[in-house]
Design goal:
CATH topology: Spore Coat Polysaccharide Biosynthesis Protein SpsA, Chain A
Distance between the termini: 52 Å
Number of helices: 11
Largest sheet: 9 strands, mixed
Number of domains: 1
Strand content: 15-25%
CATH architecture: Alpha-Beta Complex
Radius of gyration: 19 Å
Strand order of the largest sheet: 1-2-7-6-5-8-10-9-11
Structural class: alpha/beta
CATH superfamily: Spore Coat Polysaccharide Biosynthesis Protein SpsA, Chain A
CATH class: Alpha Beta
Amino acid sequence: MMVLMPKAKLGTKSQRRSGSSATSKSTVRRAVAGTATVNKSAARRPPQSLALTVGKTSQALPVLHGTLSVIISARNEEETLLRLLKQVARLKPTEIIVVLNGCRDSSFERARLSRQAIVVHCPDSAGHDVGRAIGAKLSRGDILLFLDGDMVIPAPQLASFAAAVDSGVDVALNDLDSLLPPFGFSDDVIRSKLFLNFVLGRSDLGVSSMTAVPHALSRHALESIGYRELMVPPKAQAISILNKLRVEKTRLVNVIKHNRLRPANTGVGNPVEQLIVGDHAEALLTVLSQRVTSNFLHAESLQEQRRQLALWRNGL
């Protein structure tokens, strides 16, 4: 890994795994060990207000007691990255880590315009969620807020996730339940999220998942889950629940509306959908592997979960 200190005036997702999860882990090892180029500004960031001006009103942001690391994964996001970075800066984070994952546009130049950003440049795509693992490995904060570079989310909405973790939550998730279609019209991704949470005994989470951004982790959660496991978000979520971490829904951020459409994430059975469903299968394998010590998979428990799922489905 090369560390370059830019001039003071500059502060400046491809399918994750082509094979097994072991391949993706070695990819992260290579990315963190040597193939990534890191840029960090030596300039001290200017004072920042705790208020976000929206139109003619000003919305105060919560003051955090813990330090905040914001991790942004981006792939060809030159149109949105700088605007997102401006919103993130309003949170007064200790650090902003931007992982550029196989970018072919001007995302690198845009990211360097942020005087605070640490830019991790992977010229070749490391994979869909690998950027989160890389950013988490490099982070120093008490609170880790994960974002995607294609969505410009206002600072007050982002602040809710950081504040939840600051108040004691270990895993703060995006609450997308109100956007759900009827069960009969749900796709495989929605059903996979619902089923995993049911199996884990957390039907209250609905479709809330570490697959979706924004979400935030405590440093304790990261140490409990392991940064490598963030490459498979549903597996990381399963581990957090199995380890009895405090996992909660925080608020709704409509990322469905803002999600950038690409060939890989549109159409029935698209590559991203297949990847996410496969990730949930891997998460379920993790749950099954702990069936001896967990209480989730006793026959009585499974029967009750199936009954509750049927009641929920038939009630739609």
